[in-house]
Structures are given as structure tokens and as C-alpha cells.
Design brief:
81% helix, mainly alpha, 11 helices, 254 residues
């Protein structure tokens, strides 16, 4: 922006102190106008950046919150598997009735990685966040999230598939649910700590998260119903599978 200051004709003509005063007032007025113009633009730009930063923070925190809930649910299912295994070990007559419970309790996690990709794919995102400690904690949380899926969920699923607990009592009792429970607890504790630190670093409260959650879900009203319908279908298929297996056991194949 090029601003030209024009010397009043009266001053050029040498009209004295009065003309000089008018020129000074004109100069001051022009300077104030410039300051207000650039100052207002600066404030608006700052407010815009702060709003973008907050939106980015809430998007990440919402993703961490959902991931943590999934891990907590998986950890709970592993503990329930231990209860089933122990009950059968103490009374093997329960095996026939409860042997399918283990497969239903296996933790299956499918994290949504869209937010993680946005977070990790651009240095501009990190610059927008403007907090190195927060960035480090989020990166570590995402790393542990993937490790949990690999070292706990996927590994346990492979062991259960190998032992075929629904076919062999010994196979069910040999699964190391206690080991997976210890590993799960360590991951869960670390992820809870990182989540709490992130909330503190960016001044995010539970109320803020709940408000953001409601806003997100209001934009996708069909999702909760879809999830419920999917769970219902899975339960129905599982029930039919169990009935089929029990029916096959009664068949005399000779």
C-alpha cells in the first residue's frame, strides 16, 4: 500500500504557524488511519488463526477420546475372557455351554485414521497447533494406539485361532489371557496419561469434548443407528452360527 502525504497549499505558500499546525494534524490523522487499518487486519488474522487452532485441537482430542474408549472396551473384554476361562477351569462341565463365549469376547479394534493422517501429513498442521509438547504427546498416543492393535488385539486373535478354544478344552485353558491383560493395562495407563496431558496442555475440558461430540453427531444423525443395526446383525449371525454348530454335533455322520 503506497500512501502519499500532500503538503497543504497554505503551508507551501508560507502562511505560518497555523498552516504548520494543520499539516501536523493531517499527518497524525493519516498515521492513525494507517495504524487502525493494519491493526484491525492483524487482530482479525490473529482471531482467525486462533479459531483454526481450536478447531484442529478439538478434532484431534475427539479422535483421541474415541480411541481411548475403544481401548478401554477392549481391555474390559480381555478381563471378561479371563473370568470365563477361570469359570470353565474350575468347573469343566461348563465348557460345552460357554466355549463360544471366548470368540464373542475377543477385542476387535478398527481405529479411524483420517484425523491421524491430517495431523501427521503436514508441517502446516503442526505449526497451526503451536505447542510442541502437545504435538509430541499426540504423536506418541497414535503410536501406542497402533501398537495396542498389533500387540494385543491382533496377537490375541492369532493365538485364539491357533488354539481353537471352541473345539478343545485344553486349547481354551492354554490361552494366555493374563499376559494380554497385563500388556493391555500398561498400554491403557500410558494412553490415559497422554490424553490427560493433552487436555491440560490445550485447556480442553470434558464439557468442551461433550459439546464438540454433540456437534459432530448432529451432523451425522444416521451413524449411531447404523452402528446399532450392524451390531444387531452381527449378534444374529453369531447366534445362528452357534445353533448350526450345536446341530452338527448331534448328527450321526456314520
Amino acid at each position: 500500500m503506497i500512501i502519499k502525504l500532500h503538503t497543504p497549499k497554505s503551508l507551501r505558500a508560507g502562511s505560518g504557524i497555523s498552516s504548520l499546525k494543520q499539516f501536523v494534524l493531517s499527518l497524525i490523522a493519516t498515521s492513525i488511519s494507517i495504524a487502525l487499518t493494519f491493526g484491525t487486519a492483524g487482530v482479525l488474522d490473529h482471531n482467525k488463526k486462533q479459531k483454526e487452532k481450536r478447531q484442529m485441537v478439538m478434532m484431534i482430542m475427539y479422535d483421541l477420546h474415541n480411541s481411548l474408549k475403544m481401548v478401554e472396551q477392549a481391555d474390559s473384554m480381555i478381563r471378561k475372557s479371563i473370568d470365563v476361562q477361570l469359570a470353565i477351569a474350575e468347573d469343566t462341565s461348563l465348557y460345552k455351554e460357554m466355549r463360544f463365549s471366548i470368540s464373542l469376547l475377543l477385542p476387535k479394534i478398527d481405529f479411524t485414521v483420517a484425523t491421524e493422517h491430517i495431523f501427521s501429513s503436514s508441517i502446516e498442521t503442526i505449526n497451526t497447533l503451536g505447542n510442541v509438547l502437545f504435538t509430541e504427546d499426540v504423536a506418541e498416543f497414535y503410536l501406542k494406539r497402533q501398537q495396542y492393535k498389533t500387540e494385543v488385539c491382533d496377537s490375541l486373535l492369532k493365538e485364539v485361532s491357533r488354539e481353537t478354544p471352541s473345539s478343545r478344552l485344553k486349547g481354551l485353558l492354554d490361552i494366555d489371557f493374563y499376559v494380554y491383560s497385563w500388556i493391555s493395562e500398561e498400554f491403557l495407563t500410558d494412553m490415559q496419561r497422554l490424553f490427560a496431558e493433552c487436555k491440560q496442555l490445550m485447556d480442553v475440558t470434558d464439557k468442551d469434548l461433550e459439546k464438540y461430540k454433540k456437534k459432530r453427531e448432529s451432523l451425522e444423525p444416521a451413524l449411531p443407528q447404523t452402528a446399532e443395526k450392524r451390531d444387531s446383525i452381527i449378534n444374529e449371525i453369531t447366534s445362528l452360527q452357534q445353533r448350526l454348530l450345536k446341530a452338527k454335533e448331534k448328527i450321526n455322520w456314520e
